[in-house]
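Notebook entry, structure prediction.
Reason for the run: the old model in the group folder had no record of what sequence produced it. Starting over properly, with the input documented here first.
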Amino acid sequence: MSGSIVLLASLVLLIAAYALYGRWVAKKFGVDDTLLTPAHRLRDDGDYVPARAPVLLGHHFASIAGAAPIIGPISAAVFGWVPVLLWLLLGGIFFGAMHDFAALFVSVRNDGRSIGEVIKKHVGSRGSILFLLFTWFTLALVIAAFAIIVAKTFATVPAAASSSLMFIALAVLFGLALNRFKMSLAPASVVGVTMLLAMVWLGQIFPVSAAESTWIYILLVYIYFASVAPVWILLQPRDYLNSFLLYILLFAGFIGMLFYNPEIVAPAFTAFKVESLGYLFPMLFVTVACGAISGFHSLVASGTTAKQLDRESDAQPVAFGGMLIETFLAILALLTAAMLSSESYAADLAAKGPVGVFSNGMAHAINAIPGLKFDPAVLVSFVSLVVSAFALTSLDTATRLGRFAFQELAEFMPDKARSVCRNKHVATLLAILPGALLMFTGQWKAIWPLFGSANQLLASIALLSVTVWYFHSFHCKPLFITVPMVAMFLVTCCALINVVDENLAKQGYLMAGLSGTLLLLAVFLAWEAFGILRKGHPESAVN
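New structure, fully documented this time:
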């Protein structure tokens, strides 16, 4: 089958979904541009700063993308390309895009607070405390894993390190140009993107070499300052400029795939159970997270993005549109695996990993564009640089989100502890330290396999809190939210039961205990929320 036909059909479907279903979802939530968003009402020029829609889309997309929409689909292709493609399209549209929009919108209607605050208000304090602790732990795991990934990339690809350091300096200058010198966005973007591409080239000429351990310490210092600095001076402009790298890669990859027109030779379906991942249900839906639906997106949407939304109608392009762009990236990644035979796919995956499979596939596609002919090694290096840039973006966003989660946890503490722990410097350190401890002791490796299930549990809890909020606000039970919510709860619980069973069998008591704890958390929150919905009277739900 032609890969170009699959790609074009997917693109048309995603565009139609944005125009039709996205508009319908926005209408169901009652988007109202006459209401001031928290970015305006609570503006502090630190965390709450209104951003123009293209800038905020860049921040949001760069934060949610990372390497996950590449790694997940390519890894899950072991089940066959058809199940993965169907889940990406159906999940991305009806689960992920709606989930991201809902999390952002509900947060905006709750002063830019996190999903934990929504749970506190509509489900109860116990549920909120458990959710925030779970969020804090999950983000610590993300910080540990992503810091190691970025440090390894910088140590092995010094050009990526030097380019990334230059990107940070460029972001500060770009933020100052927009917010202090009031430069127009269009000319600033032209200059900024031109300099960004120049820095990619300069990185090849002036690589910065350092040991992996050195980069880890540098990254820990960097994410501390990225968390406490005003969002407009680093996080917002860096993510916006970095997003152009991925836009360029997406556009070049799309055009290249049309000319390359790879034949899909991978099997459409292999087996319901494969040795490397297990059963298709639930493992496909846990392995392919970003690209279809991801709980981490709800943390970004209700953490940083909600505090920067200029007007409510911007939620559709930023959250709904940002998710569909990520779905398109995931489909491109899937095609780089699907155009390989089963033998080549297995060999490349083992030797190069999912990012290597993606980089090689994209290099072949881009070189198929008439008039373009690059050294394949240079293209592979460029794609790897883009992926590492987004891993770094996810790392500093996760740190800021961890700070927000701990600051909200502080509200449940005694007065003296509350005032100390709500300090952004203290909260940032307490977000970084658990991740650093997991990193330096190597414990993150033991529990990282749990992240897929934990991530999807976040998504199901976010949808649960949105369902209860919607019930309070509109006095009805929304099927377009509850159906994905129930489906993700089933996926998560089955995956966690499977992890508990496997680890008890091989005496992996740490993983079994953590998985069992997450399973109990899911059951507890579901019981509390479903009890509220069963009562039929929203007023009785408030604790």
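Summary: Residues 538-543 have pLDDT under 50 and may be disordered.
The old model has been moved to the deprecated folder.
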